[in-house]
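Why does this matter for the project? Reviewers at the last site visit asked to see concrete outputs rather than summary tables. In response, this paragraph embeds two records directly. Each consists of the residue sequence and, immediately after it, the corresponding structure tokens. Nothing has been edited or filtered.
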Amino acid sequence: MASVMEDPTLERHFKGHKDAVTCADFNPNRKQLASGSADKSLMIWNLAPKGRAFRFVGHQDVITGVQFSPSGSLVATSSKDRTVRLWTPSMKGESTVFKAHTAAVRSAAFSHDGQRLVTASDDKSIKVWSVHRQCFIYSLNQHTNWVRCARFSPDGRLIASCGDDRSVRLWDTTTKHCINCFTDYGGSATFVDFNSSGTCIAASGADSSLKIWDLRTNKLIQHYQVHSAGINSFSFHPSNNYLVSGSSDSTVKILDLLEGRLIYTLHGHKGAVITVAFSREGDLFASGGADSQVLLWRTNFDSRSYQDVLQQHSRRSTPDPPPHLSDIYPRTAHLHQPQTTAIQVSPTVADTRSTDPHVIELGQAFHSTTLLNSKTNLTPTQASANGHYSNGLPARHVASSRVEGWMGGESAGRGGLTAGNQTGPDRGGKGRREEEEIAQTHPLEVLSGHPSSLDSTLRHIVQQLDILTQTVSVLEERLTLTEDKLKECLLHQSQILKDVRASEAWRRTDSEGTDGSPVHFT
């Protein structure tokens, strides 16, 4: 078992969504986290301590999936409104709309070269798109019920999919044929993904099971049954040593794939955990749930860096590819039940390191590019009643844009893009225009204007509170030990008294007869 210093820790929480958080993904640049919600909005959170959050509005129904492109220059979102949007993560908030499915779209994922996009839908189909040419390429149709998830393999040669027909399918992107089908699920298959090397796939189910297959042998190599309700999402650690899963039982669980066991159970969400995701480096992971918040965790338990793992596998003498799920024993299917030794991490303080980020409402972009199969139509977004743009944003969105301080539940920004962004009352219009011009061209990494002295003071207060908390904890432990020792002493003394009384009673009985007269021996 890992030591206390290696346990995962709650780094931050992000509050800004107004409904359940359904999906999340980290930007490869390690600076941002995107999340989609049942409130129909896409949120991009800056991981910097004083970073702002940005809300993108455009979908007409629940957002079901989100993923950054490998370059981080695009964000794909899928929605129950039957569309997929490609967003440019900047202040302009431009998006391209793909309308190809006839029912709710459940997932959208990029290929690892960023050239293609695969979507899965309730219309029982999987569709592949060209990102660069912005056109439909081909469709895969063998599922007999809703398709919940579809993902490209790292080399782009395979697509894995799963759905409500209780099957997990493997597709060849060259021949467009289904080359394998795993159908031993007791319920709907909710999520599927490849490990980082592409030799194994894992799939989760509404029956609370998680299974891992080795694609080189087409055999089930691991089967976990550690949750008490359906698993909604999971994510492989980049090293392939670990897997994090989120379930409707309100917990996040971390599995050690090398040892084949549950190592952590994390409690932090109130209600179902709908999405989990590791960062590209594996040092962080995020979870989102029905409580409308996103929790950011620091991994800690992976003491070895991903590069060290890769170097170790490059020195292997076997001809097998680098991934090491093939090294798991036993290699036959085996069932893992929950273990009582799992560490229960239950944070008592929600967030002591940062305040809730300011949220900037961006609304829709100037032009929405609608793609219907291979046809492209440009539909300009309607402007405000006066029909003009101000400071590079549609006038109606400038009027409605605001910075929301979720800490105090207040809304600011009446009449400007970010009235709450001003660092002082004397800030002029020129300064605002310069900031807006920079923000429109620069990625969403704008810092809020908290004074550094206030920040350092707050940090010092938090440190002092942490010290006080630790001191109280130590005193409580000592008090508990003292109470335990006192109880032991009392119990021991009581036992001695009982023994003494029993001994005296035995002597009296031994020295007297049954009628009370002394006993004489001859």
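We now turn to the second protein, recorded in exactly the same manner.
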Amino acid sequence: MVTEKSLLTLKFRDIFRGAKETFRKDLKTWLLKFLKSNCQSQLLLTVGPGSPATPASASISLSTHCVLNLELFVAGRNSCSWSELYGEHGWYSVIVQPGPLGQNESGLLCTFRKDRDPQNGYIPLVVAASLFVAVILLYFLGLYVSKLRCTQDLYHLFQHKCFPGLFNHASEPQIPAHVPPEEPRKKRLLSLDTFRGLSLTLMVFVNYGGGGYWFFEHAPWNGLTIADLVMPWFVFILGTSVGLAFHVMRRKGVKKVQLFRKVAWRTGVLIAIGVLFLNYGPADGPLSWSWARLPGVLQRLGFTYFIVALMQIAFGVADIQRYQVGVWWAPFRDIVLYWQEWIIITGLECIWLCLTFLLPVPGCPRGYLGPGGIGDDGKYFNCTGGAAAYIDKWILGENHLYRFPSCKELYKTTQPFDPEGILGTINSIIMAFFGLQAGKIILMYRSKPRSILKRFLIWSVLLGIISAILTLGTQNEGFIPVNKNLWSLSFVTTTSCFSFILLGLLYYVIDMKGWWSGCPLIYPGMNSILVYVGHSLLGSYFPFSWEMKSPTSHTEPLAQDLLGTAIWVFIAFLLFRKNIFLKI
């Protein structure tokens, strides 16, 4: 007997199922539009002729990182096409057989089948994140319990019962009647060290493989992944550190000549370490300058630091507090006082825009920002990187550039392209300047912490709006797409927006409220050069790496990469306890 209640339940179930299917279709359509790519079609496999008794078959392994547009041709005609985001380690079949007349032009029917359900590759990551959260909660719970009065009473009772002779009043230190007050010391900005440590820890994890997850790898070309945030965050922090450190040295009376010597020495050491370190490996044999890669991470950091530091030496303001009131532009003094620097930065960005969009590149259209290869239907196969690559080849030579860019596998490129090239370094300076602006805000409003947070919010909103205009809210269809390889303007504004937000959040939690000391991330943040160089040199050795039994799954690679990262955090902690810091 079917009741009205059961009919109503079935109706709601049908509505729910229909809404669920509609949501899936809309989500798939949105993904296809958002991830739209005009790649030239590539032949995956060829199936030989068969017969009704012995049908032909073939198999192939496909990438699971993105939605794939697949087409099946029989006798030179398109028989069927489909778009699918395949799950990891799943088995799928497409069966082609004669179909009813009028089915399609070829008269064939394509049937799609799932032979084995894919595995959920995110389970290891969820387990690791849950364990991490549990450890954090237990840590804070332990701190809370240890501060309770009953816990302290039990602790003192245990001391006096078990060690009665060690805790008598005679052994307690005598406090003098008058203790001279200590000179007030300026509080170190712990949030900045923690931000640096977070960036470095994430960098180590990403460089070690990130557990094999695609979002812990660099985007093939346009787009933004977690791995793409690490380097710009580090550059942003560099600019903030320059602003704070140079202000202190100027207040101490350090002369400009001394500052210049310090900057020149540090820049030279960073570039030297980068060139010599990046171009040597035990399997490479002696260093050969005929193939040595000249650009690199440390080289870019060194040159960026040099330019930003020079601007602070030339145009830095020692006494910035006297302009708090009395002038109409006091609310904008963090910009007005440094108008010369803003002119330089504007000029540098104009140079980047002109070279990127107006420089003629042989065989390529002006302003080309694509990956080349099979991208853009293969029309500009040898135009990878456009003007940026052309300038690097012209000045540095093809043999001195990176030969394995992130676009090589997906877009089948053959041209060398260096993501740390010359043209991108201009926008790296812009990124560091935004970090320098954060440092100026901290210095000018340090007596009003809430004003610092308001300023950070204003800058993040402004930069976010600029990014939305430049990209039109899409990955590939905007005026200037977000691109880490090119260090495009939208990439700089987007990552700077995130940097202001994250630094403001850490400043509020650590320096304002004191809810968190920054541990353990603060330790690698205070020894960044040593951790960066050390993890790169020793990354292929045990215990940071070992031969895995299941490298195609996520469980063992994730455990390996997390363990290697944790070891470097622990090493930084031990060095901190021994007061050992590697500084340049």
